[in-house]
Design goal:
Order of helices and strands of chain B: HEEEHEEEHHEEEEHHHHHHHHH
Shape of chain A: elongated
CATH topology of the largest domain in chain A: Cyclin A, domain 1
Number of helices of chain A: 17
Strand order of the largest sheet of chain B: 1-2-3-5-4
Number of helices of chain B: 13
Structural class of chain A: mainly alpha
Number of domains of chain B: 2
Number of strands of chain A: 0
Radius of gyration of chain B: 22 Å
Organism (chain A): Paxillus rubicundulus Ve08.2h10
CATH superfamily of the largest domain in chain A: Cyclin-like
Protein name (chain A): Cyclin-like domain-containing protein
CATH architecture of the largest domain in chain B: Orthogonal Bundle
Number of domains of chain A: 2
CATH superfamily of the largest domain in chain B: Transferase(Phosphotransferase) domain 1
Biased composition (Basic and acidic residues) (chain A): 318-333, 345-354
CATH class of the largest domain in chain B: Mainly Alpha
Shape of chain B: globular
CATH topology of the largest domain in chain B: Transferase(Phosphotransferase), domain 1
CATH class of the largest domain in chain A: Mainly Alpha
Structural class of chain B: alpha+beta
Strand content of chain B: 5-15%
Keywords (chain A): Cyclin
GO biological process, one term (chain A): regulation of transcription by RNA polymerase II
Largest sheet of chain A: none
Oligomer: heterodimer
Largest interface: A-B, 52 and 61 residues
């Protein structure tokens, strides 16, 4: 026994996560890592489920009314989200938020729309909420009042009403690993390489690589590749030579097939960044947004018939619950035993749960 | 109902709240269980509605870090769900904490027991630091103890990540008695060394059975530290007089740790002094500490299941071998209400039969290095 327990002190690196890298143990790797095909499937199934649900709502409201509605498809939705991604750097510049806030908010916005559709939740307020949440999760909080008072036509409730929904959609997984941090690591590594003299690594190379990392945020690469892969691709776009030197310094003894795999990954990321790493065409987005006005989910539009019907139903359920509680209390009083009968475990738990839910 | 709301509702149904066990300013803690398995859990319900800035920072910190950290010596966050305007954190249920154990005068600690708690604390902390997370509130009552004896770091409400040196952070962290001198001097650039100082204070407290450096005010805290460890010189800690809130608080001589910790072994005092080194950059790291000879020399650390613990967890003893969190027996009295019982360790540890003498008489032998027989 003694020998076994001494082992606990001997092997600090052995943990419940085994030999996995830190990154592989992160929620980013576990929950938010997709293949390009998976991304398409996720977005299309969200989109078609939403279209079906909204079509039903329209039909219930007024039969035949959905026939001429041009619903958004998954690509339309993606385009609209992309436009709002480009608004985040503008706002962050205005508030002088650190880069970490900007990158985190963009990640949150992308992740939100892998669980929701723009026809339910318009990206404008979701974007504002994601950004506000990012200031807090990255430890750069500002007060909600000073946040919203600096954004035109925005009230605190626009942000607050959605905060829970956004946090839930993110699965409360707030930690994000960023490519710009990985790039800084690469840059520090390069300074350790004896053959890379100072004149071989001018600061503009870093600045240019950072620009490519920033452009990568307009694309899906962070949902497919790791921060280190993205940063290496960005460095390679800025200086293929330095990127190669870094790879050489790290991969002595790597097999040919590993090198080929890396090369092909970096090639793909570079392609993504150069092809999709810019803001979308505003005219095309405006067209999508115009159509969205006609096909958004009436359940979420305050004042619509569907919205009112949903509220009535919610109220009816709450009323039923209250009545049941009153009834339970009455029964307990009328019980023959003045101390009440012993509740079985399940009943007791059920009651406590109901009380808890009501004591907000 | 949205897919997201639906998922939340399903999560909520997985957990049953049984009984309120504590209430703080911003949270209520319930004892509960997993509906399908009966596994005991703690549900921390954070009232969010009352904050005008939405989700509050300490809840966000706790969720953010515990979502990422999965380690035997860090409390496990099992689930998160919302109910109306509340945020609910479902945490593994832990019976006791190190403060309760230290204060329970009926329990006697062997050097091997202290070594075991220290090993588990350093393992949990090393894992946090490896993940670039500072805990910033280590103290005995944030080191929780599972029914199988495993120690777990808890309460990440003040935690934060660190990456670049030179990133300004607040010095208003860590409970005073466990706060390192650099924070008391207003240092805004600090590192993992702040947590190590706290662990050093806890290490000393385990031996003394009373807080080692109990300052009454922030100013008195510095004086208390210097009285115990001597006023640092420029050589001990270069540059400390230039820190933002530096004030001279008097000259105290350095007294050897041996004078106070009379029963401790040489290795013990060596590790203790390395955790309580003034110069933060010279203070030992969690990883180095785990490789310190203290942990590999005799006596070996006690197996967690054999560590002293308050009597109340006795009722669940037969289940210990199965899983610390499975509890099919009716709930016993809360840990704090347990009557002292000096026979506790005998009852719970069959291995005790191998140690025929009463604890206090056993010490010289256990230390094996000629340490004195005083209780450490």
């Amino acid at each position: 026994m003694a020998a076994k327990s001494s082992k606990t002190a001997d092997e600090p690196t052995t943990s419940s996560t085994g030999t996995k890298s830190l990154y592989e143990a992160s929620t980013q790797f576990k929950s938010w890592n997709f293949s390009p095909e998976q991304l398409v499937i996720v977005r299309e199934s969200l989109n078609s489920a939403a279209v079906t649900a909204i079509r039903n709502t329209f039909e219930t409201d007024e039969p035949g009314s959905s026939a001429h509605v041009s619903f958004l498809n998954a690509e339309d939705e993606h385009l609209l989200v992309k436009l709002y991604i480009t608004k985040i750097p503008q706002l962050c510049g205005h508030f002088r938020f650190p880069e970490e806030v900007e990158a985190t908010a963009i990640t949150y916005l992308k992740r939100f729309y892998l669980r929701n559709t723009v026809m339910d939740w318009h990206p404008k307020n979701v974007m504002l909420t994601a950004l506000f949440l990012a200031t807090k999760t990255t430890n750069n909080p500002i007060s909600l009042d000073s946040y919203t008072s600096n954004i035109p036509r925005t009230s605190p409730s626009d942000v607050l009403d959605l905060e829970f929904l956004v946090a839930q959609s993110l699965g409360f997984e707030f930690a994000v690993w960023h490519a710009h941090r990985a790039l800084w690591g690469l840059w520090l590594d390069l300074q350790y390489l004896p053959e890379i003299t100072e004149d071989l690594r001018p600061r503009d190379v870093y600045e240019m690589a950072l620009k490519h990392v920033r452009n990568s945020r307009f694309t899906d690469v962070e949902l497919i590749y790791t921060p280190s892969q993205i940063s290496l691709a960005a460095l390679s776009l800025a200086s293929p030579l330095l990127a190669q030197k870094w790879v050489d310094s790290k991969s002595s003894g790597a097999t040919d097939s590993a090198s080929e795999t890396l090369e092909s990954i970096i090639g793909t990321v570079k392609y993504f960044i150069t092809q999709a790493g810019q803001p979308p065409d505003v005219e095309a987005v405006r067209e999508v947004d115009r159509r969205l006005k006609l096909c958004k989910n009436p359940d979420k539009v305050v004042g619509s018939k569907a919205y009112l019907a949903r509220k009535v139903e919610e109220e009816r359920k709450a009323e039923a619950k209250r009545n049941k509680k009153v009834e339970d209390a009455r029964r307990a009083i009328e019980d023959d035993d003045p101390f009440g009968s012993a509740l079985n475990e399940a009943e007791r738990a059920q009651r406590i749960r109901e009380l808890d839910e009501d004591d907000d | 109902m949205d897919a997201v709301e639906q998922a939340n509702a399903e999560r909520q149904k997985r957990w049953v709240k049984d009984q309120k066990v504590g209430e703080g300013t911003y949270a209520v803690v319930y004892r509960g269980r997993e509906a399908s398995t009966g596994r005991k859990v703690a549900v921390k319900k954070i009232k969010v509605g009352q904050f005008k800035d939405g989700l509050d920072m300490s809840a966000i910190r706790e969720v953010k870090y515990l979502r990422e950290l999965h380690h035997q010596n860090v409390i496990e966050l099992l689930d998160v769900f919302s109910s109306k305007t509340n945020l609910n954190l479902v945490l593994e249920f832990l019976d006791s904490d190190l403060e309760i154990i230290i204060k329970d005068r009926s329990l006697v600690f062997l050097p091997a027991d202290i070594k075991s708690w220290m090993a588990m604390t350093f393992r949990g902390l090393e894992f946090c630091h490896r993940n670039f997370i500072l805990h910033r509130d280590l103290k005995p009552n944030n080191l929780l103890i599972a029914s199988n004896g495993q120690l777990k770091l808890a309460d990440f409400g003040l935690a934060r990540d660190f990456a670049d040196p030179g990133y300004k952070m607040t010095c208003q962290v860590i409970t005073r008695w466990y706060r390192p001198p650099e924070l008391l001097f207003g240092c805004r650039y600090y590192s993992t060394a702040v947590d190590i100082w706290s662990v050093g204070c806890i290490f000393a407290e385990l031996m003394l059975r009373t807080p080692y450096l109990p300052g009454e005010t922030d100013m008195d805290q510095l004086k208390t530290i210097f009285r115990a460890l001597g006023t640092p010189t420029e050589e001990d800690w270069p540059g400390h007089t230039k820190l933002p809130d530096y004030v001279p608080v008097g000259q105290f001589p350095r007294t050897p740790l041996r004078d106070l910790f009379t029963a401790a072994s040489g290795d013990t005092l060596n590790l203790l002094s390395k955790t309580l080194t003034y110069e933060p950059r010279k203070r030992i790291s969690a990883k180095e500490a785990l490789h310190h000879p203290y942990f590999t020399s005799l006596p070996y650390p006690t197996h967690p299941s054999k560590l002293p613990k308050p009597l109340s967890s006795h009722s669940s003893r037969p289940l210990e071998e199965v899983d610390g969190n499975v509890d099919l027996a009716p709930h016993g009295a809360p840990a704090k209400a347990a009557p002292p019982n000096k026979l506790k360790r005998k009852l719970s540890s069959p291995i005790d039969d191998l140690r025929p003498l009463a604890r206090r008489l056993d010490f010289g032998q256990m230390l094996g290095d000629g340490g004195s027989n005083d209780v450490c």
